[in-house]
Design goal:
InterPro entries: Signal_recog_part_SRP72_RNA-bd, SRP72, SRP72_TPR-like, TPR-like_helical_dom_sf. By secondary structure, the protein is mostly helical. It is 61% helix and 1% strand.
Length: 682
Amino acid sequence: MSDSAIAALNSLLRGTSIDDHEEALKLANSAIKAAKGNPADLTTAQHTRVVALVKLDRFDDALRAIAEGGAALDKTCVMEKAYALYKTGELEAAEQLLETTGINTRSMKHLAAQVAYRAEKFDKAAELYQEMAENVEDAMYGEENDLRINILATYSQLEMQGKGWAVSEEHKKLSRDELEVFETAYNAACGSIAQGDFAKAAFLFKRARDLCEASEDLSEEDKKAELVPIIVQQAYVATKLGNLEEAARFHEEVVLSDISDASTKAIAQSNALILKSESNPYMAQRLADTLPVVTGNDRLFEEQATIFRRNKYIIELQAQKFAGVKSKTAKILSKEAEPTISSSKCDLGALNAAAASELQTGKTALRRILPLLEIRPTDVGLLLTVIQLYIQLQNPAQALNLLEAFFKRLEAATASENNADVRFAPGLVALAVALYRQQGRHSAVRSELAKAASHWQSKQKAASSGDSLLREAGIELLRSTHPSDLSTAGEAFTHLVAAQPDDRTATAGLIASFATSDFAKVQPYLGALSPVEKLTAGVDVSALLDAGVAALPVVSHQQQQGKKRAREDDGETTGEQQKQQQQAAKKQRRKRKLPKNYDPAKQPDPERWLPLRDRSSYRPKGRKGKKRAQEATQGGYVKGDEETLELAGGAGSLKVEKANPAGSGGGGGGGGGAKKKKKGKK
């Protein structure tokens, strides 16, 4: 019986193809039982069982079978084990297994590229796919089309990650043949979404849908499955373009129960919920909680998961769940202390600030958010939120101080590539340049751009995220007449030309930078620019010279700050306005009124400014009035009963006020001899 089971399995394996994987699994299990004493037959039977389990999508069972087979089977089933790990979502283990074994075959490269793609290492996946596309000697029939589809998908994901610089302009162009396949048209449309070109994306999705529906190679069931993601994307693009009725019509075409892919189903449900525009935030939160949580190998990409999480927190903020959002976001942010410009982390910083301020703005929000910046000084999202609030309060100087302090902290921290990349991130440098320009600090602008350009030039990569910054920095530094600025601009343009030789802007900048200092560097690139004769072919130089040079009138600062001119209807003052201006000119200053008995020849009284009582001519009424007036001076001596005391030794006498007799006063403070009347008993 043992020989018959092994013979049946060998007969099956000798076939050109195996379609019944259940039968293969059954025969393999029987052969394993029969080949206990024969290691070679046992290994073959175990390998067959693993392959059958993988074909039946029983990946967990396949991994258990490999573990039961021991080290010998582990070496034989490297591809099957790596693929099973990939399908169960254990991407790190699959990647480590492939790197340990060695990616030396074309099939291993395909699997390694798929693992890298699912692990969101799209630059590595693009490198592997591009390597296989260039080496077509050992390619299988029809593999070229699949490679192009996967390459376009990888490029679209790089655009989503903000790494469009990693894709050359040549590879971004679509050929006519690629627009004849619905998969490539779909991936190109996804790339257009990443670039923000939704009109182009709508056209490409419609093209992909038409091609899919007209395909003769797909069955009706396959067409139905392939059309679902296309229609979901069409609904999303229509929503972004503001065509809400069209988006609702697309959503009605999608039957959620027919969607097999968990991530696509979750995205369709989320987009349909947003399209409803639920005005009640509490009801919107309840509906959002019904969205499925996708795990495993079908989980969402980080960019998609970030959008889901952001939408959820925004709905909770609208429902006044401030404490919950604040604690959740703070917990996630506390796990990563290193500064980052990742959109997912920056969004969390802004949402945490919104929860802490309870959706307040202005100074109230600043009072609540600034203490958080002291706790998390490297949180870029929180920093940008505070800067935005200061700008809204018309206080850009304080915003710039915060940004400069953040830059200094990064520069003073332990030298690391990540800190330096965040310090000279194009977005943060552009913000600093904008604030410097607002304050008229042009030298600071050139200094900041020069430092950023120097950093990104030091990168060993042929292209990097700083290429756009290098281009703008070079253009700005070209405006300077300082030799060091021109030299820095030249180095920036040299780096750009080396990375992208077809970039005519970089070539022109290189020539302009070294034209007056190092003509030898310029000479090889002169042929890449359009000749001057071609550019001025349609220009009449004589007519321009005869017409002269047009110049705008120079307005002085005093004229700008002068009085506002009157409004003019047709560029001329009306007759009524002219009459009013003439009457205003004729008006004279009113003459001051003079006293009735004023005599210009008479000298005015010099004591006229003194009070009447203090004038020398003052005479009080009555015979003794003057004397009484002197005695009635406020704060002066008040005359009372006096007595004369003789001084000892004949030194004279002194008048003093006579003391009151004891007990004669009616005040509260009596002398020691005063007697008080006691109350008698009644």
